[in-house]
Specification:
Length: about 280
């Protein structure tokens, strides 16, 4: 049952959960998990087997009792505001001496690249973006460019080409690095966005490819060349085949035209010229 329950839960993004096995006092062991439901966080403890009848549950944080009940269930849930979700929580299964487990929540935010890889032509502009949906919200963003000599922090406004723009919505915090007038030699590479809260940080990497203008032009030039060659071939072909084409047109359905004087004569001539061959 505990397994099914654990499978039905999804562990909160951005929370590093460090479950500590319950002290085994011959009563069984406790499985811990964390579930996010809207703006609420649920901490869950499940006692998987017990020889002693459960007489209640108690939740503790830093020696403060948060909740206590006298229910006999093998599962206990503590719900709280997502905003408070930091620190070490303990669940206890009564009676004393209780079986207990700890849930240590650290709030290092999980940061994701909106797109892990971007490509653009030199001279163009590009926007690299990272986001974080973790609670509490990322409040501070930093961008770096990876280099052999170490990571180079990108300061907003550098070279009048690099601009950072941070936004926050109900569901996420987002940071965008806008790069103008891309340089093929210096701008390609790996960029790192780092988002932090008061107690932790997370980062993601975005790879930027900068193509040369000429490279961007090649497919176009290829098409132009193809079209030119095709047109040349068609012209050459038409030139060789012209007499026959005229006859075919004539046969195909231009019969009424035969009444028009000179035109018809020309055609007749060409037919006559061809027939002996
Ligand atoms: C309870 O959990 C312990 C440790 O995870 C495991 O060894 C034991 O088999 C479990 N018992 C049941 C009935 O699932
Ligand atoms: C970066 O600079 C631009 C203007 O130069 C400004 O609008 C923007 O808010 C700045 N971003 C940050 C993160 O300070």
């Amino acid at each position: 049952m505990a397994g099914n329950m654990a499978a039905a839960l999804f562990v909160v993004l951005g929370l590093a959960l460090l479950p500590v096995e319950g002290l085994d006092m011959g009563l069984g062991s406790i499985q811990t998990s964390v579930e996010e439901a809207g703006s609420k966080i649920r901490l869950i403890c499940v006692l998987n087997e017990t020889a002693t009848k459960i007489t209640g549950h108690r939740w503790i944080k830093a020696n403060e009792v948060l909740m206590e009940d006298t229910l006999p269930d093998p599962t206990t849930v503590y719900e709280m505001d997502a905003a408070n979700k930091t620190g070490d929580y303990s669940c206890l299964f009564l009676p004393e001496p209780a079986v207990r487990a700890e849930l240590s929540l650290s709030k290092s935010p999980k940061v994701k690249a909106v797109k892990k890889s971007e490509g653009a032509n030199e001279g163009d502009s590009i926007t690299l973006a990272c986001k974080s949906e973790s609670f509490p919200r990322v409040t501070h963003w930093t961008w770096y460019k990876k280099a052999d000599t170490g990571d180079q922090e990108i300061v907003n406004g550098t070279q009048d080409r690099f601009f950072v723009n941070n936004t926050e919505s109900d569901s996420e915090a987002r940071s965008k690095l806008h790069i103008k007038n891309l340089d093929r030699n210096s701008d390609g590479g790996k960029y790192v966005c780092n988002g932090s809260t008061s107690s932790g940080s997370g980062s993601a990497v975005i790879v930027l490819h900068v193509r040369s203008r000429l490279a961007a032009l090649w497919p176009f030039l290829g098409i132009v060349a193809e079209v030119l060659i095709l047109v040349t071939i068609i012209f050459a072909y038409e030139k060789c085949q012209k007499p026959e084409v005229v006859v075919e047109d004539d046969d195909a359905g231009a019969t009424p035209l035969k009444s028009s004087g000179q035109h018809m004569n020309n055609e007749d001539k060409s037919v006559r010229q061809r027939n002996p061959i």
